[in-house]
Amino acid sequence: MPPFLQPKLLVSGIKEKAGSLVVQGDRLYIGTSLGNLHIYGLKEKQDDGAESIQLVETKKNLTRRSIEQLGFIKDINSLVLLSESLVTLFPLPSFSPPTPLIKAKAAFSFAIHTSVQHILPESKDAHPTDADFSKPKSIPTLVTVLMVGCRRKVVIYSWKDGEPQEVKEAPLPHSPRAIAFLGPDTACFAYPTDYAMFSIPAMTAVDFTTPLPVTASTTAMGALSGLTGYMTLGLGAKAKPSLLQVSDSEALIIKDNEGLFIGPDTKPARPSNIEWPVPPDEIAFVKPYIFSVLPAGTVPAHPIDACIPSASQPAPSFIPTTVVQIRSSISLQTSQIIPFPFDTPDSGSRPVSPTSILNASVRLLTASPSAKSPLFLVTTPIDRTAAAVEGSSIWEFTMKSWVEQIDELVVMGQYADALALLDTIEEAVLPDKEQRRTRIRALNAVSQFRASQFDAAIDTFIDLDFNPAKVVALYPESVAGRLSVPPEGWIPLYGGPAPLPVDDTSSVMLGENATESEKGSTFNDRSATDLLDTITTGAGSIRGRLRGTGLGMLLPGGAKDDDTASISSKRKFVLHDDLHRSVETLVRYLANYRPKLDGALRAVNITPQNQSHTISPLSQASIEELFALPNSPLSALTPEQLLRFAQIVDTALYKSYLIIRPALLGSLCRVPNWCEVSEVEEDLRARGKFAEMRDLYNGKKMHAKALQLLRDLSEKETDMEDKLEPSISYLRKLGPEYIDQIFDSSKWIIEQDRDMAFQIFTSEDVELPRQAVANYLENIDPMLCARYLEYVIEEGNEDSPAFHDRLADIYFSMTLAAKKRNDEKSRKEVYGKLLKFIDTNDRFGVDRLYGRLSSTELYEARAILLGRLGRHDQALELYVYKLQDYLKAEEYCKRVYQPGTDTSSVFLTLLRIYLRPTVKTTADLLQPALDLIHRHNPRLDAVETLQLLPPLVTAEDVRAFLIEALRAPIFDTRVVRNISKARNDQLSRRLIALQSKRVKVTDSRICPQCHKRLGNSVIAVHAPRGEVTHYQCRELFSRRLNETRH
Fold it and tell me: Which regions span the lipid bilayer (predicted)?
């Protein structure tokens, strides 16, 4: 890619030798060897935007000798001129009065550096305020430094916001022949033979010698920025050391045919250097390109053809004239080669003299101290006759626009170079810099992915918040599914043009106006390298055979051995040399992206549990729609876009695990996810991952598929438990919203084993709608329904009368059905459950059930219901007359009997039924009546019982009843009262006796507390033993007595 347009001829026919040049605004100042200063005006044409030049003024004999170097100081609006070993300042535009810098005598070179520095104020007010005690604030100041290299010393002049500062000097061991600033505090000196790094704050220099240990030239990536100054080189003798400032952190020094990058610490700033076929005659720098002038006969005319010599091919030819080589300071690759004579748009209209085709010397003159385009050079015919006739010419090199350069690099697939170039451009010059950076970074990541640098590529995609659909598209169909894009479609997918074929990019680096022969003499190092690396023979790669030749030195990475070059060349054409490693990297990307997506979705209340079964499947979205999703942070996406991203990420993660980590599929399937089932289910089935399929279906609420899968798998089992248990366990976990699915999928299980199938409806994890389950089971088998209702009532604590009534009705219907089919065993079992239910349950409707049973022969059930209705006489009649079960009749009476209530006469009612039958019966009821009187005589009214007995019953038959009825009480209440009174009287007498006790106090009686004689003191007598103490000792003695007793 040629970054510069073809040189434009500005001035021709200059008879004087141009020695220096500087541009300031719209003025071009040219210093000559005769001490004259030519001032040209630069104007931009309105029609084509090109610049025109016009001589404005000539300062004759401004100096007595050659003007060796020119510069400009904006702070003081003065031209800096080096002539006769003296630096002089000429104010513009008058050029008078000149100010010679006397301290800078015997000067060899100078350099100017201008920067904005934040400087603390030097003094404060006499009376400090509270703000003065805070951190002092720095003031932005425009600082310009003029450094003059003199004989064995350096002199520094400086200005701050246009105010001159104190002049500083520092002795040096040698004389600086060239100076380049590396930031505001450091400068690099070129001595006649060596180099030194000078610290401005310390005013000391550190020498370093060359050559330094270097490595073979390779492509260097790093972005260079922040250039703030550039030294305009004078055009002295060719033996003068060459030195360039490339950035604030590195300088380029020339030693023989090698260019070394040196940092402020005097150490190599880069691992790779520049190698020329021969030492360059001149060098210059226009950010970010390095210009070098190579002598005639050193650059091959057809580099690609010349590097593959054969027996039938002549030796390589070289360009017979001086060549201007333009090399990128970022990649160190040759970007453009322009041989002399230069081809210009107006060359066809100019008269061509016979001498114009001869060679000429080319001398580079930098345009401005900021290392910006354009660059000017001077050509002078080598032939003296031609030089005398034609004179010298000044040419202008204009760089193409940044946008055009970057776009050309992208078209050629040189994304890393495009990024590095982009980093050198200020955002003010390129407003869409960040958008371009994002796009090119993505394209570079694709290039890294193609080169098996998977981690670096994925890290870029993560950093750019790139659409995961496009990231997954880089993988084969086994991972990406229908999103997979072939390698030739990767670059267009990521917004870039398809790279040009090698044949289209390997031959030309000239401008668009170059001739075919000139194009043949120029080439693109990168494309040529790729081409050479693909041609291998038994003797090794072409690169190895070319090592040491002129062309080999021009190729990047020339120091690699044959094997390394061969392996490298083969690897370039392998898209996926390690699928496993690439998928591992993808898993890292997806695992990093997944929790972020989950958090973003939860923020808008979207989770797989509540949404995964309602959103449209990923398969319904077109590939174009998925690729069109934005490359934005998750916070900038809509919920619909977040859902699509989640589906893409989880589906790709499933497929990746299926390939490299099958053991983790189970855990991934069991957690909530957004995986697209249709993309992975066939792969899971083919690999026999049925448990993972079931979990996946379950997570997606695709229960019909999961249950069908379990049914299909059950056909392979012979044991009934192994056959049915998986389906039963799955159905037990489904909620009421899937009740239809549960009913549909449980039919075949009920047909296989009803007892096991019943577990489906008794799950403790979920609560199914009981009414619907009861209806479903009753349609299949009333016994199952009754069993379910029993479970609901007994263990589910169901209080609704509807379920209790329904269970009673089912018992009743089953009893009649069993009787109808003469199944006595079943009838007894069900009838027993009915009797127990209606006897113990109080939630069902008794009236309603009795209405159904009243016309049947279920007499015991009718009797229990009549008793529940309070119609005890009718219930007892059924026990006695219909069932003739007298013990149950008595049990019924004992169960309902309550003294002092309406049921206190229930035994008398039973006796009346025995002795006064209301229906005609042949049974002898007298004996049951006598047995009732014998067993329950206390609960029978004696008078009414005797009235009911028939006359033929003897006293002996009811002897026990009569004795019990006629027995009198043993104790009269008056006796009890008198005994209680006598007891109270006895206790009262004992108390009086205790309280009337006397003590005798004599002169010799001692107090048991203080052991002193009582005498006539006030005393206290203690009960119950009558101890006597002083009155004042009573409390202490009483306390002691209590302690002794306890």
Answer: none
Q: Are residues 619 and 657 in the same domain?
A: yes
Q: Are residues 157 and 195 in the same domain?
A: yes
Helices (H), 768-918: 770-780, 782-794, 801-820, 824-840, 846-853, 859-868, 872-877, 886-896, 906-915
Determine the distance from the C-alpha atom of residue 35 to the mean position of all C-alpha atoms in its chain, rounded to a whole number.
Answer: 68
DSSP class of 746 = H
Query: pLDDT digit string (tens) for 971-1029?
Result: 456 656 777 888 899 999 888 877 777 788 888 899 999 999 988 889 998 877 888 99
Between 959-966 and 926-935, two packed helices, what is the crossing angle to 10 degrees? 40
DSSP string, 517-567: HHHHT---HHHHHHHHHT-EETTEEHHHHHTTSHHHHHSTTTT--HHHHHH
How many whole angstroms separate alpha carbon 345 and alpha carbon 627?
A: 46
Q: Total structural domains in the chain?
A: 5
**3-state DSSP assignment of residue 109:** strand
- Cβ atoms of 956 and 962 within 8 Å: the answer is no
What is the structure's pLDDT at 88? Answer: 94
Whether residue 1035 is contained in a domain is answered as: yes
Give me 443's structure tokens. 């394209």
Q: Phi and psi of 1043, rounded to 5°?
A: -65, -35
- CA-to-CA distance for 558 and 68, rounded, in angstroms? 38
Sequence letter at residue 196:
A
Mean local confidence (pLDDT), 36-60: 78
Q: 683: which 2 tokens?
A: 């792969």
Looking at residue 248, its pLDDT comes to 84
Closest alpha carbon to 337 in 525, 532, 500: 525
Which tokens in the block code for residue 804? 């209790």
Residue 181 domain boundaries: 63-119+138-209+241-277
> Residue 713, class by beta-carbon neighbours within 10 Å (0-12 exposed, 13-18 middle, 19+ buried)?
middle
DSSP secondary structure of 658-669:
HHH-GGGHHHHH
Could you say which of 232, 249, 277 is where a domain stops?
Answer: 277
DSSP H helices in 572-631 = 579-603, 608-611, 623-627
The verdict on whether omega for the bond into residue 211 sits within 30 degrees of 0, i.e. cis, is: yes
Three-class secondary structure of residue 70 per DSSP: strand
333 part of a folded domain = no
CA triple 541-544-547, angle to 5 deg: 150
Q: Does residue 785 share a domain with residue 708?
A: no
251 close to 264: Cβ distance less than 8 angstroms: no
The contacts of residue 841 (CB under 8 Å, 6+ apart) are 793, 804, 808
DSSP state of 172: -
Of 663, 682, 700, the residue at which a domain comes to its end is 700
Closest among 924, 911, 927 to 872, alpha carbons compared? 911
Q: Is residue 853 part of a domain?
A: no
Residues 659 and 677 in one domain: yes
Are 740 and 820 found together in one domain? no
